[in-house]
Each structure stands twice: as C-alpha cells, then as structure tokens.
Write a structure and sequence with these properties.
298 residues; alpha/beta; Rossmann fold; six-stranded parallel β-sheet; two-stranded parallel sheet; 10 helices; binds NADP nicotinamide-adenine-dinucleotide phosphate
Length: 298
C-alpha cells in the first residue's frame, strides 16, 4: 500500500531536495507543506492536518535556522524549534511516525573525536538550545515513533547556505578571510534527503522501526577554510584569495562549536546506509547544478 508522507518546511533546503527525489519513490505519496500552508506553530492547524489526512510518516524539515539572528529572536526561535515540534508530536500520536531533523549545534564542540549519539549535549547558542529542546520534547512525547537525525553544515542549490555565500563572495571580492580552526563535515542536502527516504523504505521493507537519535553528515572532516578552497577550485573561482583566520578573529553573535564531526556508525549500521565523502558530494552538487552556476543561483 502507498505510504503517505507529510513533509513540513518543504520550501527550505532539505525540503526542496526531498521534492527533487519524489519521482524515485513511487511507493510514497508526498504531501508538501510550508509555513504558508501549514504553520507548525498553530497547534489546531497541525491537529486538523494530521486528523484530515492518512499520514504514515512526517518528515519535519521546518525550523528556525538563522543562527545569529536567533540570539535576539529567542521567542520565535523556540516557538518553531521546540513548540512546533510539540504540536507535531501531539497531533501525530498514534497515527504517524516522525522523522525530525536536528543539529550538531547541540554539542559544545570540545570533543576531539567524532560525536556519538550518546555524548551529553551542551549547546552554546540560542539556536542550539532550542533544537536541543525540540529533541527533548519529541523524545518525551513520542519516544517509540520518532527518529531524530542530527546533521551539520548543510548546503544545496536552494535557500541560503555557506557554499552559495562563498561562491557569491568569491565572484565579488579579491580576498576573503575564512575560519580555519573550526572542524566539521559538510552535508549535501540531496544526500540527506535520499538517506531519509531510504530509511523510510528500509523500515517498510523490514517492517521495523528503530526510534531514537542518529547522526548524519557526509564522510570526512574539513575546516571552513579548506571547504572554501575546494568550493573555489570546483567552481573555477581563481581571482579571490582565501586567507585562513582563527575563529577569534571572526566574531559572530552566536557561538559555534569548534569541533562538530558526527560519528555516523549507528545510522549506517541500523539502516544499511552508505554515506558519500564530503568532497565527492560537493563536486556532484556543483557539477550537477551547472545550470544553477550559470544562472547565478549559486
Ligand atoms: N542549514 C544548516 O546548515 C543546518 C545544519 C544542521 C542542521 N540543520 C537542520 O536541518 C533542518 C533543515 O534545515 P534547512 O537548512 O533545510 O532549513 P531552511 O532552509 O531554513 O528551511 C526551513 C523551512 O521551514 C520553514 N518554516 C519556518 N517556520 C515554520 C513554521 N512555523 N511552520 C512551517 N514551516 C516553517 C521555513 O520557512 P521560511 O523560510 O519562510 O521561514 C523554511 O522553508 C532543520 O531542522 C535545521 O535545524 C540545518
């Protein structure tokens, strides 16, 4: 039987990449919504949506993701990243399973080895704290029917992200200072979107569901500086010099983790996933999207 999947926040980066994949999963019927059609902070609307549609899975891509702005916009950030998750969990109870996306910013960044799901969280920003609260609410209200996937450094041809910003700045400027002492793993949103749909397909095939927290990013580790150099190399940007600087010389309103590499062993093992290396995926994303490069979408 066809499975109905409600996608929230579908006009964001991850939502758009899911949309690109719909045709490859004929066993799934997608109901795409964003704030204009389903505002998750409106509890009654969320309930009506889950009552009025036979939904098997919810993929929650909706979030408040403006990390620095969140430091001043605390209430709205919590409304979307925590309270809306509560609305979803309550409305989906006994009806639908939830795949919810969280972030590496729940960690303080002091680890020297990749973060496993069992490491205690200690977010350093309003955004990180609100996402941690969202996780907590979901694990409290729907522990048996929810999968939380923490991801990091997400990019795509859609919306706002580091790759697009660097390509724009690289075309405009002669030099750029980029942080070289924060390490992590970029995540191609297309890879994460595919992993999410493959996880649902795996659950359906095996008639199993392994709830809990999982980590997903692309494989490998880099710094923002080395990431930028690779972006420029692949995008053919030669006239902009990239200077490595410590994070202390590039102050931002929100504190970011110095190290946020995620250990992906659990998600790979549980759902039989293989994860591409970050530089292979970056190449694929930029070359597949040549049309976007030419159209200045990147
Ligand atoms: N971007 C990253 O680097 C990154 C890193 C780690 C984890 N994540 C997580 O990954 C997930 C997907 O991120 P993303 O980059 O795809 O986010 P995004 O591009 O910012 O998309 C989020 C979408 O949610 C929508 N939205 C906001 N408030 C809503 C509401 N009340 N009801 C329904 N929809 C609402 C947004 O609409 P508006 O644009 O109109 O507000 C937007 O379309 C998020 O959970 C995020 O926390 C992201």
């Amino acid at each position: 039987m066809v499975k109905n999947i409600l996608v929230t926040g579908a006009k964001g980066q991850l939502g758009c990449e899911l949309n690109e994949l719909y045709a490859q999963y004929p066993g799934f019927n997608f109901i795409s919504t964003d704030i204009d059609s389903l505002d998750l902070t409106k509890k009654e609307d969320v309930r009506r949506c889950l009552d009025g549609n036979r939904v098997d899975y919810v993929i929650n891509c909706a979030a408040y993701t403006a990390v620095d702005k969140a430091e001043d916009d605390v209430e709205l950030c919590y409304q979307i990243n925590r309270d809306a998750v509560r609305n979803l969990a309550e409305a989906a109870a006994g009806k639908a399973k939830i795949i919810h996306i969280s972030t590496d910013y729940v960690f303080d960044g002091t680890a020297g080895v990749p973060y496993k799901e069992t490491v205690a969280t200690r977010p350093q920003s309003v955004y990180g704290k609100s996402k941690e609260e969202g996780e907590r609410v979901l694990m409290m209200l729907a522990p048996g029917s929810s999968i939380i996937i923490r991801t990091a450094w997400l990019y795509s041809p859609f919306g706002n992200n580091f790759v697009k910003t660097m390509i724009r700045l690289g075309k405009e400027r002669e030099s750029l200072n980029v942080v070289n002492d924060q390490a992590g793993s970029p995540t191609c949103a297309a890879d994460l979107a595919k992993a999410i749909l493959d996880i649902i397909a795996f659950c359906e095939e095996t008639q199993s569901f392994a709830p809990g927290i999982y980590h997903y990013s692309n494989e490998g580790t880099t710094t923002w500086f080395d990431f930028t150099k690779e972006i420029f190399r692949l995008a053919g940007i030669k006239n902009c010099r990239v200077n490595p600087v410590p994070a202390s010389e590039y102050p931002t309103k929100a504190t970011r983790p110095m190290y946020s590499v995620l250990d992906k062993t659990k998600i790979k093992k549980t759902f039989a996933l293989s994860i591409p290396e970050w530089d292979d995926s970056l190449k694929k994303c930029l070359f597949n999207q040549k049309i976007y490069l030419n159209n200045d979408k990147f």
